[in-house]
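About this split. The held-out portion is used to measure sequence recovery: a designer receives only the C-alpha coordinates and must propose an amino acid at every position. Recovery is the fraction of positions where the proposal matches the reference. Here is one held-out target exactly as it appears in the evaluation file.
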Protein backbone atom coordinates (compact mmCIF):
# COMPACT_ATOMS: atom_id res chain seq x y z
CA UNK A 1 0.00 0.00 0.00
CA UNK A 2 1.07 3.57 -0.61
CA UNK A 3 3.06 6.05 1.42
CA UNK A 4 1.18 7.98 4.12
CA UNK A 5 3.98 9.54 6.16
CA UNK A 6 7.76 9.66 6.21
CA UNK A 7 9.09 6.18 7.05
CA UNK A 8 10.73 5.94 10.45
CA UNK A 9 13.15 3.19 9.43
CA UNK A 10 15.62 3.00 6.57
CA UNK A 11 14.11 0.04 4.76
CA UNK A 12 13.44 -0.60 1.12
CA UNK A 13 10.02 0.66 0.09
CA UNK A 14 8.88 0.61 -3.52
CA UNK A 15 7.76 4.15 -4.44
CA UNK A 16 4.21 3.40 -5.56
CA UNK A 17 2.41 6.76 -5.93
CA UNK A 18 -0.36 7.38 -3.41
CA UNK A 19 -2.79 8.54 -6.09
CA UNK A 20 -2.31 5.30 -8.00
CA UNK A 21 -3.14 3.24 -4.91
CA UNK A 22 -6.10 5.52 -4.18
CA UNK A 23 -7.59 4.72 -7.57
CA UNK A 24 -6.77 1.01 -7.33
CA UNK A 25 -7.18 -0.11 -3.68
CA UNK A 26 -6.36 -3.71 -4.54
CA UNK A 27 -3.90 -4.12 -1.65
CA UNK A 28 -4.50 -4.94 2.00
CA UNK A 29 -7.83 -6.72 1.35
CA UNK A 30 -7.78 -10.41 0.61
CA UNK A 31 -10.08 -13.13 -0.69
CA UNK A 32 -7.26 -15.63 -0.08
CA UNK A 33 -5.42 -15.61 3.29
CA UNK A 34 -2.38 -17.02 1.47
CA UNK A 35 -2.07 -13.69 -0.36
CA UNK A 36 -1.97 -11.67 2.87
CA UNK A 37 1.25 -10.37 4.55
CA UNK A 38 3.48 -13.22 5.68
CA UNK A 39 3.28 -11.80 9.20
CA UNK A 40 -0.43 -12.65 9.30
CA UNK A 41 0.68 -16.30 9.07
CA UNK A 42 3.41 -16.02 11.73
CA UNK A 43 1.85 -18.85 13.76
CA UNK A 44 2.71 -21.18 10.88
CA UNK A 45 6.39 -20.14 10.69
CA UNK A 46 7.93 -20.29 14.19
CA UNK A 47 11.26 -18.65 13.27
CA UNK A 48 9.78 -15.87 11.20
CA UNK A 49 12.44 -13.33 10.10
CA UNK A 50 12.10 -9.86 11.57
CA UNK A 51 12.00 -8.18 8.15
CA UNK A 52 8.81 -10.08 7.32
CA UNK A 53 7.30 -9.51 10.76
CA UNK A 54 5.19 -6.63 12.03
CA UNK A 55 5.68 -4.64 15.26
CA UNK A 56 2.41 -6.11 16.50
CA UNK A 57 0.28 -9.15 15.64
CA UNK A 58 -1.29 -8.79 12.22
CA UNK A 59 -4.53 -10.80 12.20
CA UNK A 60 -6.89 -10.57 9.25
CA UNK A 61 -10.31 -9.06 9.93
CA UNK A 62 -13.40 -10.42 8.16
CA UNK A 63 -15.26 -7.82 6.08
CA UNK A 64 -19.01 -7.88 5.49
CA UNK A 65 -19.92 -9.44 2.13
CA UNK A 66 -23.14 -10.46 0.39
CA UNK A 67 -24.16 -14.08 1.12
CA UNK A 68 -23.37 -15.08 -2.46
CA UNK A 69 -19.88 -13.51 -2.42
CA UNK A 70 -16.67 -15.22 -1.33
CA UNK A 71 -15.21 -14.32 2.10
CA UNK A 72 -13.12 -11.15 2.28
CA UNK A 73 -10.61 -10.03 4.88
CA UNK A 74 -8.70 -6.82 5.50
CA UNK A 75 -5.32 -6.43 7.14
CA UNK A 76 -5.71 -5.20 10.73
CA UNK A 77 -3.13 -2.46 10.05
CA UNK A 78 -5.17 -0.91 7.24
CA UNK A 79 -5.94 2.72 8.19
CA UNK A 80 -9.45 3.97 8.81
CA UNK A 81 -9.41 5.72 5.42
CA UNK A 82 -9.07 2.31 3.79
CA UNK A 83 -5.86 3.42 2.09
CA UNK A 84 -2.99 4.17 4.50
CA UNK A 85 -1.02 1.68 6.60
CA UNK A 86 -0.84 2.20 10.37
CA UNK A 87 2.59 0.52 10.42
CA UNK A 88 4.10 2.57 7.59
CA UNK A 89 7.90 2.50 7.70
CA UNK A 90 7.90 -0.63 9.86
CA UNK A 91 5.48 -2.61 7.73
CA UNK A 92 6.59 -6.10 6.65
CA UNK A 93 9.06 -6.59 3.80
CA UNK A 94 6.51 -8.29 1.57
CA UNK A 95 4.33 -5.15 1.83
CA UNK A 96 7.26 -2.75 1.39
CA UNK A 97 8.59 -4.33 -1.81
CA UNK A 98 5.26 -5.01 -3.54
CA UNK A 99 4.64 -5.32 -6.55
CA UNK A 100 7.82 -7.37 -6.14
CA UNK A 101 7.32 -10.61 -4.22
CA UNK A 102 9.55 -13.35 -2.86
CA UNK A 103 8.39 -16.75 -4.07
CA UNK A 104 9.80 -20.26 -4.00
CA UNK A 105 9.57 -21.73 -7.51
CA UNK A 106 11.24 -24.77 -9.07
CA UNK A 107 13.59 -25.36 -6.15
CA UNK A 108 14.76 -21.79 -5.59
CA UNK A 109 13.75 -18.51 -4.01
CA UNK A 110 13.09 -15.83 -6.61
CA UNK A 111 11.97 -12.24 -6.65
CA UNK A 112 9.11 -11.84 -9.10
CA UNK A 113 6.91 -8.99 -10.32
CA UNK A 114 3.11 -9.04 -10.03
CA UNK A 115 1.70 -7.67 -13.31
CA UNK A 116 -1.71 -7.19 -11.66
CA UNK A 117 -0.42 -4.10 -9.85
CA UNK A 118 -0.78 -1.08 -12.17
CA UNK A 119 2.60 0.23 -10.97
CA UNK A 120 4.35 -2.80 -12.51
CA UNK A 121 3.85 -1.36 -16.00
CA UNK A 122 4.85 2.20 -15.05
CA UNK A 123 8.53 1.34 -14.65
CA UNK A 124 10.97 -0.74 -16.67
CA UNK A 125 12.47 -4.08 -15.66
CA UNK A 126 15.77 -2.38 -14.77
CA UNK A 127 13.94 -0.34 -12.11
CA UNK A 128 12.47 -3.46 -10.51
CA UNK A 129 15.73 -5.39 -10.84
CA UNK A 130 17.53 -2.55 -9.05
CA UNK A 131 15.12 -2.71 -6.12
CA UNK A 132 15.26 -6.51 -6.07
CA UNK A 133 19.06 -6.40 -5.90
CA UNK A 134 18.91 -3.84 -3.10
CA UNK A 135 16.48 -6.04 -1.19
CA UNK A 136 18.79 -9.01 -1.63
CA UNK A 137 21.87 -7.08 -0.50
CA UNK A 138 20.38 -5.07 2.36
CA UNK A 139 17.67 -7.30 3.82
CA UNK A 140 17.53 -10.87 2.49
CA UNK A 141 21.28 -11.31 2.96
CA UNK A 142 20.85 -10.69 6.70
CA UNK A 143 18.65 -13.75 7.16
CA UNK A 144 20.04 -16.93 8.65
CA UNK A 145 19.76 -20.21 6.78
CA UNK A 146 17.19 -21.39 9.32
CA UNK A 147 15.07 -18.28 8.80
CA UNK A 148 15.18 -18.72 5.03
CA UNK A 149 14.13 -22.35 5.38
CA UNK A 150 11.32 -21.27 7.73
CA UNK A 151 9.69 -19.11 5.06
CA UNK A 152 10.00 -21.59 2.22
CA UNK A 153 6.46 -22.97 2.51
CA UNK A 154 5.02 -19.46 2.76
CA UNK A 155 6.95 -18.36 -0.34
CA UNK A 156 5.76 -21.46 -2.17
CA UNK A 157 2.10 -20.59 -1.55
CA UNK A 158 2.79 -17.01 -2.66
CA UNK A 159 3.65 -17.93 -6.25
CA UNK A 160 1.36 -17.56 -9.25
CA UNK A 161 2.23 -18.67 -12.82
CA UNK A 162 1.88 -15.17 -14.28
CA UNK A 163 4.38 -13.56 -11.93
CA UNK A 164 7.41 -12.40 -13.91
CA UNK A 165 10.83 -13.49 -12.71
CA UNK A 166 13.20 -10.65 -11.83
CA UNK A 167 15.99 -12.11 -9.68
CA UNK A 168 17.09 -15.59 -8.66
CA UNK A 169 18.08 -15.64 -4.98
CA UNK A 170 20.96 -17.76 -3.73
CA UNK A 171 20.26 -20.92 -1.69
CA UNK A 172 20.53 -20.53 2.12
CA UNK A 173 24.01 -22.04 2.33
CA UNK A 174 25.49 -20.14 -0.63
CA UNK A 175 27.08 -16.68 -0.73
CA UNK A 176 24.20 -14.18 -0.99
CA UNK A 177 24.53 -12.93 -4.54
CA UNK A 178 21.57 -12.99 -6.92
CA UNK A 179 21.47 -13.88 -10.59
CA UNK A 180 19.52 -11.59 -12.91
CA UNK A 181 16.86 -13.28 -15.00
CA UNK A 182 16.07 -11.86 -18.40
S1 LIG B 1 -1.99 -3.12 -6.51
FE1 LIG B 1 -0.34 -1.59 -6.74
S2 LIG B 1 -1.39 0.34 -7.25
FE2 LIG B 1 -2.93 -1.07 -6.43
S3 LIG B 1 -3.08 -0.58 -4.23
FE3 LIG B 1 -1.57 -2.23 -4.46
S4 LIG B 1 0.45 -1.23 -4.67
FE4 LIG B 1 -1.16 0.33 -5.02
S1 LIG C 1 0.79 -4.17 6.94
FE1 LIG C 1 0.11 -2.26 6.01
S2 LIG C 1 0.73 -2.39 3.86
FE2 LIG C 1 0.82 -4.48 4.70
S3 LIG C 1 -1.20 -5.38 4.21
FE3 LIG C 1 -1.32 -4.47 6.27
S4 LIG C 1 -2.14 -2.39 5.94
FE4 LIG C 1 -1.38 -3.15 3.98
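Reference sequence for scoring:
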Amino acid sequence: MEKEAAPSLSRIILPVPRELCASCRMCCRFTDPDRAPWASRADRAPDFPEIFSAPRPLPLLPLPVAPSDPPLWSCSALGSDGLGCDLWGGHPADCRIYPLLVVFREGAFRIVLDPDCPFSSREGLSFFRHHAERFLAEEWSLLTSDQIRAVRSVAEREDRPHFQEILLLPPPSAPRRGSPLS
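Annotator remark: Residues 1, 27-28, 37, 75, 77-78, 85, 87, 91-92, 95 surround iron/sulfur cluster (ligand 2) (CB under 6 Å).
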